[in-house]
Design brief:
Structural class: mainly alpha
Number of strands: 0
Order of helices and strands: HH
Distance between the termini: 43 Å
Helix content: over 70%
Largest sheet: none
Number of domains: 1
Number of helices: 2
Shape: elongated
Radius of gyration: 20 Å
Length: 59
Amino acid sequence: MKHALSSQASLDAMHYLMLAQQISAERSQELRLRQQDRQAQSPPDPNTMWLKAFFHGWR
């Protein structure tokens, strides 16, 4: 019984590790895309600037 529990726990740990890796990969891709967007729109619009700051504060 102990063996079954420990193997299940290790499976859960592996599952969470995979999820964490997937999430961090998506985050880094999202950040890369945002940096590209910033470089593309060189003149920053003041209206969108405060909106971005507002949404950034929510996270």
